[in-house]
Amino acid sequence: MSIVGKNASSAKFRRNRWLLTGLLSLYFIYTFMPLFYVITAATKSNQDLFSTFGLWFAEDFSLWENLATLFTIQDGIFLKWMANTAYYSSVSAVGAALFSTLAGYAFAKYRFFGKKLMFALVLGAVMIPQTALVIPMFLMLSSMGLTNTSLAVILPSLVFPPGVFLMWAYIDDAISNELIEAGRMDGAGEVHIFSSIAFRMLMPGFATVLILAFVASWNNYFLPLVMLNKPDMFPITVGLAQLYSTAISGTGGVLLFTVVMTGALVSIVPVIAAFLIMQRFWQGGLGAGGVKA
Amino acid sequence: MAAIELRNVRKAFGTVEVIGNVNLSIEDGAFVIFVGPSGSGKSTLLRLVAGLEDATAGQILIDGTDVTQLGPAERQLSMVFQSYALYPTKTVRQNMSFGLEVARLPKADIRTRVDAVADILKIGEYLDRKPRALSGGQRQRVAIGRAIVREPVAFLFDEPLSNLDAALRVEMRIEIAKLHQRLGATMIYVTHDQVEAMTLADRIVVLDRGSIQQVGTPMELYQRPANLFVAQFIGSPKMNVLAVRPDGSALVFADGRRADLGVSFPPRLAHVGFRPEEVQLLSIGQGHLQGKVEVVERLGSDTFAHVGLGELGIITARMPGNVLSISPGQPVGLGLSGNQLHQFSRDGSRLS
Ligand SMILES: Nc1ncnc2c1ncn2[C@@H]1O[C@H](COP(=O)(O)OP(=O)(O)OP(=O)(O)O)[C@@H](O)[C@H]1O
Ligand SMILES: [Mg+2]
What we know:
The complex is a heterodimer of chains A (293) and B (352). Chain A is an all-alpha fold and 293 residues long. Chain A is built from 13 helices and no strands. In chain A, helix 3 packs across helix 10 (203-219), helix 3 crosses helix 12 (236-248) and helix 7 packs antiparallel against helix 10. Chain B is elongated and about 75 Å long. The longest helix of chain B is centred in the middle third of the chain and has 18 residues, at 166-183.
């Protein structure tokens, strides 16, 4: 249904707008509630966590104490986990974005043998959850002696099919064949054309894939869980899960519930920050394709 | 500078043959124009010369050297694209310098060359701007400038003016003509535009469905078209063509009308053609065919009368100046000149 040309004050327009706002509000509440729970829980003491209403703050504000515990527990292992996560995610994200861009460029701009089949495989891979591949990948990497190394987490994350698909669509649109041919006429090789003409035009797409891959890797739980078994190599996801299991198993760990909550809160801060930083690229960039007549 | 020769060149995309056995030689310093309807293979032929497409068969020679296997850069040609294809993230100066930087010329040389070309094309003021901040005409100049600085052996243009408005197109056309005189370089130019083809070319190559129909000077094509296709493609408004059967010195038209023109016609004659200026508008009852004026177009410099001939269709007559004595609905006679008629056989080829 089109609202173009309808008067903004017409009854129908207003009804539609309320409906839309209502639906989006429901969706917002649905997604925001767990996050809000994490925020309130992180500010409570362990006692209050179970004795006060979950979706509001308790009278005592214990966030600082919780943070202090979080960063000192087990000789400050949480900091180590954060550093691990940051390392795995940033290397994976840069690598995945780079490979996606290269692959997308090849799919969009070159004719080569087996292109259709390969592209179909990439599309198919978008639909396979990585979780399904983790066990075979574990067997592969373990026979290569790579389990329990950072490569075990990073290598599989470099393959990011949605990024390839996204870059293919973006490049197909943003870079005209004539532009590449102009580069060829100017005598530049394919690598030179890519690096000095095409790549700069692709920054918005590159940034998008970078952040998607970053978040995917930051939140990845199952892959590092399977690949790593030394606690000081864990990323936050696996580390917190381990703390949590200690918490529910009793043995003096009840105190850990709020620490796990605080850890969860801390772990999403960089993701939010990354989104805010990358937003600049999206606003400036998606219309920044070639110069058309 | 270079002479360019195509020998038995073919190009197929998959199983579809787009260019079929083209032979063409272009002299050093010539301005050659490819014309033809959309999809006739003009761009493909140009891109084959450029090295942007690989020929399926045949050879391409530049100055006698076989370049069929060489890439675009090694052929030392420059190309100006229809969309200009300027590098959007680079300034005008960087756009023009790029090819020279790739060729590793010293920085100072690049500067002087770019400045000199910018001077010729009057784009000196914009050197530090990005293409986005230029008008269509300015972008076109930059695209031409980028082609010139490399001092190529020949220039290739693919419909370079088709994105400009009419006035600018005329201006740039004249500029390109001057550029050709000044540089004396071989130029191959693809266009849809009749006027561009007639005014710029030393020689015109008419293409249809991937094969060359005729090669010649603009006047040769206009005055002696090799076949019906060329006859109707070159010239605007196009040549009038009527199906006929010869009967001694007379022509019998498709609807049975006869016209005695007093010259003898070959028996294989199947079509006659005459340009709008080769037919005379007379009073009713005179001349060889009778018809009725349907539309009059007045351009000031010329008056075009479109005359309906019943089943034979409509033919166009041109008269210089503004002819006030004709108006739509008026019955008229048409006078043809037997010696001037273009004669074609059943398969469309010229008879003479
Ligand atoms: N990459 C390609 N793959 C398949 N067919 C192609 C390709 N490029 C061109 N063709 C076909 O080749 C034929 C000639 O195309 P070409 O672009 O040379 O025509 P053109 O004369 O330049 O037309 P226009 O005046 O519309 O630019 C067309 O039928 C076109 O569909
Ligand atoms: Mg074309």
